[in-house]
Amino acid sequence: MKALVLHLAVLAALAAMGFLLPPYHHGMMARVLVMAVFAIGYNIAFGYTGLLSLGHALHFCAGMMACGIAMREGVAAGPALLLGLAAGGVTALATGLLALRTAGVSFMIVTLMFAQAFHLALLYYGGFTGGDEGFPLPGAARRLFGLDLTQAGPRYAVALVLFGLVLLAQWGLVSSRFGRSLIAMRENEERSRMLGYNPFTTKLAALVISGLCAGIAGAAYGVLFGYVGASFGTTQYSILPMLYVLLGGAGTTLGPLLGAGLMAWLIDAASGLTDSPLAVIGVTLIGLVVFAPRGILGTLRQRGLKWLP
Amino acid sequence: MAAVILEAQGLSRAFGGLRAVDNVDLTLQEGEVHALIGPNGAGKTTLVSLLSGRLTPDAGHIRFDGQDITRLPAHARVARGIAYTFQITSIYAGLSVFDNLALAVQRSRPRDLTAAVQAAALRVGLEGELQAEAGALSYGHQRLLEIGMGLALAPRLLILDEPTQGLANGEINDFMTLVRGLKGTTVLLIEHNMDVVMALADRITVLHFGQVLASGSPAAIRADAAVQAAYLGGADAAD
Amino acid sequence: MGTGPLLLLATLEGTVMAAVLALAAVGLSLTFGVMRVVNVAHGEFYMLGAVLAWAVAQAVPSAPLGFVAALLIAPPLVAALAWVTDTTLLKRLNYDPESTIVATIGLSYLLQQGALSFFGPDARPVAAPFSLRLQFPWFGYSGYKLFVVLAALLVLGAVWLFLRRSKAGLVMRATQVDRNTARAFGINVDRVYAGTFALGAGLAALAAVLVVPISQAHYLMGHDPLLLSFIVVIIGGLGSLRGTLIAALIIGLADGILSMLYPPTLAKIVATLAVALVLVFRPQGLFGAPAR
């Protein structure tokens, strides 16, 4: 009950921000919400199931490219978004079938390599994909349910609705029986196997759900901000969701949002000091693994807020 | 004579040069409590690992309920009704007792999960600890939770690997009551405590250097000269 | 140019590539072999070696002297930085494999930013110490490139001898087999780890100093060597030194020859996928013995 109130309160606060924020922060918050959807996907794989992937940029960028190329070829935004969703799931299924034969460090390297190969392939077929420069999506096509997504207000609304749906879906998932079996894989895979859970299929399902979130996030990013490109498939876009989840708290429902929001604020605040976010990302990553491996909400949960979902 | 539920023939498994399990035949009757005894290193844990699917045999066949399960992965054997409780307690230390039991209980898809978990906790006397973190339980309670998870699977064959190790006397008595109260579940029990074995077992198989030394009723095993020489005499002296 | 001379040129280029790659990859292989950690910042240690070489060469007026100074100064500096990283960061993480990867990802971002802030975004050339040119009937070839091959072979030989013959090498191998037993025998495991990490980074930096007269220093130059080193170490079998050397030769030659005949991006895609599949289907590498 407390958890439900908390989730709804967070969504209500985000909705209120839609009316209160100045235009610059408006765009930034919309971006944060879409990246938080991506991070929620990452959280399902890493935070709840314990699968530390370094290749989620693949699913994000696959969703983005599928959606963007479809729209370039004349498909409407709605169906194109669904294509992006599917692309995220299909790539996660394909890479998961292979990568899940490994574990631990090998799993990290294999996922990294798959994402790298995908990114290189996007560059190699640059004539079709637009390569590193990418391509803009025509403003006229960026309409959803009659809303003009080139405008700040509708854009924020769509980002918020998407985030709200994914957040509640994540909460439903992790408090379900299936969600419990995912957490069980993270906590003790051998015990789970001896309770009759198939580790391979359970983890594969987690990866596919994770990939679906990443795919829809990538597609939405393209539609909302009007640009797609292979630069969203670089290793950095695999690291970012990991960073958000680690910062906010892996295995907490609201950690991905908190991490994405805080990082955006940190990088924005530090932009006076450095012209590149690299150092901020680097310092935060190191600080987290050394001083706070559970992240913010994870530490709060450990320190007494046990009910935190 | 009751039906045979599990039949293993010619099971072998070697580690490097060591034949941990060497051409073992084992037959379990439905509903019996079958004890597996033998000195340390006799291959007991390796044998039950072969039966539960945690290891694959180098040679031999296993039939469960009339079907060959030799190549079946462990989780699929659990789904067919073979449950295994670990010798070294293996619970979800970071999760609550409720979640630990629920992970076993929910395998049979009960309508009311909470009620089913409470019933499972009651069987092993952990009904007061449901919200506690499993890793914070006392050792004895962790053993009981481990057994409770095995029971909650409602298995047809329950393999208990040294269940009373580290339990206090009172807890051992509770455990024996629990096993006696199992109706229709076949139990394969690895146990060092001979009082527990003699009190519970319908039949006993003695393993020695990976091979079956003897198999029969408790009375017959007690009288067996080879067993006396290899095991019981030595164990009495050691105790 | 006919096919024969083209192939000769490709083989030469591939050999140079293989030599540099072997140096960089042996460093990564050492840290993985002995410490069981994957150092994602390995490419940045390589980059730092190159950038520092440029900085040192700037400060010294004559080209040959500048290069020699860079060779003597840059690798030890990078090794010292790695030593500090190990004792202040990795040790705190208890060398947990996954945390170490995350931390070294952070470190690699920091080092990139540092190089960008101090040296700027431009590619910086360093003059080769000599400009000898070997004249083949079909084309001329840089004598310096052949010197790089020779130097790399010498260093690799020295590393080999160090590991096989010296007491320090024995201590490292003992720690690799079992760090707890090594500790029980009075080996200072902390120092072995710091030393290994420093040696690995120093070798990467050395490779970079050698390569800088050929390919210039740039703050993002660590990416490709890291990827290729990964590929070499994985194909060769994680932690196997001999496998690493064989794999470096194969990958270097293959890369040199293939990128003459095919677009380099395509070659990289194939190599990257190959390495992922090796890890999936033959995790002990192509030359390692299967683990029991």
How would you portray this structure in words?
The complex is a heterotrimer of chains A (309), B (239) and C (292). Chain A has 14 helices and 4 strands. With 309 residues, chain A is an all-alpha fold. Chain A has a domain of 211 residues. Chain B is α/β, with parallel strands linked by helices and 239 residues long. Chain B folds into 2 domains: 162 residues, Rossmann fold (3-Layer(aba) Sandwich); 63 residues, no CATH class. Helices cover 37% and strands 26% of the residues of chain B. Chain C is built from 11 helices and 2 strands. At the A-C interface, helix 5, helix 11 and helix 13 of A face helix 4, helix 9 and helix 11 of C.
Topology at a glance:
The complex is a heterotrimer of chains A (309), B (239) and C (292).
Chain A: H1 2-20, H2 23-48, H3 57-72, H4 77-99, H5 104-124, H6 126-129, E1 135-136, E2 143-144, E3 147-148, H7 152-174, H8 177-187, H9 189-193, H10 199-225, E4 227-228, H11 236-248, H12 255-270, H13 278-291, H14 295-302
Antiparallel strand pairs in A: 1-4, 2-3
Chain B: E1 4-15, E2 18-29, E3 33-37, H1 44-52, E4 59-64, E5 67-68, H2 74-80, E6 82-85, H3 97-105, H4 113-123, H5 139-152, E7 157-161, H6 169-180, E8 186-190, H7 194-200, E9 203-208, E10 211-216, H8 218-223, H9 225-238
Parallel strand pairs in B: 3-8, 3-9, 6-7, 7-8
Antiparallel strand pairs in B: 1-2, 1-4, 4-5, 9-10
Chain C: H1 3-35, H2 42-59, H3 63-90, H4 97-119, E1 133-135, E2 140-142, H5 143-165, H6 167-177, H7 179-184, H8 189-215, H9 223-236, H10 241-261, H11 264-281
Antiparallel strand pairs in C: 1-2
Helix pairs in contact in C: 1-5, 1-8, 1-9, 1-10, 2-3, 2-4, 2-8, 2-9, 3-8, 5-6, 5-8, 6-8, 9-10, 9-11, 10-11
